[in-house]
Design a protein that fits this description.
Radius of gyration: 43 Å
Distance between the termini: 45 Å
Order of helices and strands: HHHHHHHHHHHHHHHHHHHHHEEHHHHHHH
Structural class: mainly alpha
Largest sheet: 2 strands, antiparallel
Number of domains: 5
Number of helices: 28
Strand order of the largest sheet: 1-2
């Protein structure tokens, strides 16, 4: 941002602060009580009291002028302040001239000025003051006609000309009248300017509302007036004046307890009007934003500002303060009661800030623990912030219990602090588990179960704390003083922190229990089946020394499949629903179904003996007219990652002519033509690949052996398919497709 833009931004805020201060003063000023005081005093014959209703009208006119000053464009606002400064300079020139004439009358010296040293000093001082006033007025009004502002020099010129003192008094009055006429002429010439501005503003507002609507108009005014910064500057100015007025009347030093009381009472004094309350709300919002920004910077450095979260802007804390202040009637209370209530509200705001800091730190700490980053400085920053969030809320809850009598509001603050400490403790425990796994250089058995137990433990403690708060609130409502606000808070707290938490926790428990039962019900693959399958787990891309078999004949690690079932109840490859079933003793069928390449190789050898080439798919399709067709199970389209270097597979497919596929359509369906399958993902062509290539996150298939038949899912008979190839198969299973990147 350029220097000019920064200056304009500062002026845009600074020049509007007096309008907010004027609104605050007008709100504090009670016109009726003011006139009642005048009536009781000796000033009952004052002309101001006789024009009471005129003063009332002027009171409302002051509100209108304040709103006009608040909404004026910056250029017109600058001009208005320049005019006001010029008027003040002219008034200062009038005061200098009047004081000089009065001092000359008191001295009674009518001789030459240079003969009397005191007269010469007075004359020199007045002359320099008038010249400065004239110069400043011409500079402010940006005009070279300096004589327009030099009417107050006439008494000085008359004194140099040895004019009698009585005549100098008349000349001074004439200069005042002349300056007043100039001001009146200027006001008359600009009388229609407010009307023209109002007309132009109305036209522009009507156009904006017609094109964009009221919401866009409100957002535009909010951004142009910079209301949050404006109210924050106004409140800080009030607070600074309050502190200055206190210390200017005190000579003795203040103790620590006195400083805390001074802070609370000063804040309470600056919350006596709606405008000052809004100023406090925006000030708290900016303080919360600053604390959260420092927290992000402490954890991530400058990277925190690249992808900033719009949720942590400090507005939650400001809105919380505003709602509590409005509901408790903070403005209407006396200063002492207001300070006490503000202390409780500020504790709630601090608890909200700590919760927001935890929301920022939690994912960063867990990601740092799961990563291989060995930077000690990063780990120190993360752990130190977590320790602060663990200790400070507990200390704050202890101090609240020490200084305040327990009630429902304070119990909410204490429960929030305890919940924050519990959440931080759970985060630190998971971080320690991640670091232990990193130092062991080997995966910890059942790490997910341990993490789930840790999360479940502190979630259960959170639930118990929420139940205790609800029970205390209900007992206080039943046996104590009932209020609509307290009952509403109890209902909201019961729904969000008790009912929803219990429901989510129970659903998570049921889902994990069902996943465990399903894994137990699935048959376990034998060593011979794993050798015949000869592939890796499609979830973790690791070799399988033990596996379970799904009803759709897919092999997975038991732990990997259990993690998958925690999320959804379907097969990771074909997405068929997995239901709990009893383990069947007959496990030979999946083995038979998982060996179509072996049987196809035998069929190819038989055809070679008969003189048929093994790669001729057309002849092979004619020889197998009795075999039933099968559809290759396909993975979901959003999970399939098409390899960019599958040259062998693509060349193998290009070698097949369209007639080959059409002639073999009665045996193998490669591209289904039904409308219901027109949007299904393209089937895989299975080929053997090494586990090293699969562990790199991208599927790079190895070269396929074209000697056997197409490695698609082929339905074969369970009773001697090699001896009777012309008979249809009795039952079939699908061969699992290639693993793919998740």
């Amino acid at each position: 941002m350029a220097v000019k833009d920064r200056v304009e931004a500062v002026l845009n805020v600074g020049l509007r602060v007096p309008s907010i201060m004027l609104l605050d003063v007008l709100y504090r000023w009670d016109v009726s009580s003011f006139f009642q005081k005048i009536q009781r005093s000796s000033l009952s014959n004052n002309p101001l009291f006789q024009y009471k209703y005129l003063a009332l009208y002027l009171h409302y006119v002051g509100y209108i002028l304040s709103l006009v000053l608040l909404t004026l464009p910056r250029q017109h606002l600058v001009k208005l302040y320049l005019y006001v400064v010029t008027a003040l300079l002219l008034f200062a020139g009038h005061q200098v001239s009047r004081d000089y004439v009065r001092s000359e009358l008191e001295s009674g010296n009518e001789g030459p000025v240079y003969l009397e040293p005191l007269s010469m000093n007075r004359f020199t001082t007045a002359l320099i003051g008038q010249l400065v006033v004239c110069t400043l007025c011409s500079c402010v009004m940006q005009t070279k006609r300096i004589w327009l502002f030099s009417a107050h020099l006439l008494p000085l010129v008359a004194r140099l000309c040895l004019v009698p003192l009585e005549t100098i008094v008349f000349i001074n009055k004439f200069s005042m009248i002349f300056t007043g006429l100039e001001v009146m002429y200027f006001l008359a010439s600009n009388l229609l300017v407010p009307y023209n501005l109002a007309k132009t503003a109305y036209r522009e507002l009507a156009q904006v509302v017609e094109v964009y609507g009221l919401l866009a108009l409100g957002m535009s005014l909010w951004n142009q007036l910079v209301l949050p910064v404006l109210f924050m500057c106004f409140w800080l100015l009030l607070f600074g004046l309050q502190i200055y007025s206190y210390f200017s009347t005190r000579d003795q030093p203040t103790s620590r307890e006195r400083l805390l009381f001074l802070f609370l009472t000063s804040v309470a004094e600056c919350c006596s009007t709606p405008y000052s309350l809004l100023g406090l709300v925006f000030t708290v919002s900016f303080i919360a934003l600053g604390v959260l920004t420092l927290c992000k910077f402490y954890l991530q450095g400058y990277r925190a500002f690249m992808n900033d979260n719009t949720m942590h802007r400090g507005m939650t804390e400001g809105i919380t303060l505003l709602i509590l202040a409005v509901q408790t009637g903070l403005i209407e209370l006396q200063v002492i009661h207001r300070a006490f209530l503000l202390s409780i509200i500020l504790f709630i705001v601090v608890a909200s800030i700590l919760q927001s800091m935890l929301e920022i730190a939690d994912p960063i700490v867990l990601a740092l623990g799961a990563s291989r980053d060995k930077s000690l400085w990063k780990h120190f920053r993360a752990v130190s912030l977590c320790l602060f969030l663990l200790i400070f809320p507990a200390y704050m809850a202890y101090m609240i219990c020490q200084f305040f009598h327990m009630d429902f509001w304070l119990l909410i603050i204490i429960s929030s602090s305890i919940l924050t400490s519990l959440q931080v403790l759970g985060t630190l425990l998971i971080y320690v588990l991640f670091m232990v796994e990193e130092f062991r250089k080997a995966p910890v058995e059942n790490m997910d179960e341990v993490i789930y137990c840790v999360n479940g433990t502190y979630r259960l403690l959170e639930f118990l704390v929420a139940v205790c708060v609800v029970c205390y609130g209900v007992s206080e409502t039943v046996f104590g003083e009932w209020s609509v606000m307290g009952s509403t808070i109890i209902l909201v707290h019961s729904y969000y922190n008790v009912w929803l938490r219990a429901q989510l926790g129970w659903q998570s428990f049921l889902l994990r229990r069902d996943a465990v039962n399903k894994i137990k019900s699935l048959p376990t693959a034998s060593d011979s089946q794993l050798q015949q399958y000869n592939d890796i787990c499609a979830i973790c891309y690791q070799d399988m020394t033990s596996a379970v078999i799904t009803p759709c004949s897919h092999f997975f690690h038991a732990g990997c499949l259990k993690k998958w079932l925690y999320v959804q109840e379907s097969c990771p490859l074909c997405h068929s629903q997995l239901k709990s079933q009893t383990a069947t003793p007959n496990q030979d069928t999946p083995a038979a179904n998982q060996s179509p390449p072996v049987q196809e190789e035998g069929t190819a050898e038989k055809k070679q003996k008969d003189g048929a080439p093994p790669d001729d798919r057309k002849e092979e399709g004619k020889a197998g007219d009795a075999s039933t067709s099968s559809v290759v199970p396909s993975a979901p389209q959003h999970l399939v990652k098409t390899p960019s270097s599958s040259s062998s597979s693509s060349s193998f497919l290009r070698n097949q002519s369209p007639t080959d596929y059409s002639s073999s359509s009665d045996r193998v369906d490669i591209l289904p033509s039904s409308p219901s399958l027109s949007h299904s993902p393209t089937p895989f062509i299975s080929c053997h690949s090494s586990s090293e290539q699969m562990g790199q996150g991208e599927m790079t298939p190895a070269e396929c052996d074209p000697a056997p038949a197409l490695p698609l899912d082929i339905q074969e008979s369970s009773t001697g398919s090699s001896s009777q190839p012309d008979k249809p198969t009795s039952h079939s299973e699908e061969q699992p497709p290639l693993p793919f990147s998740l």
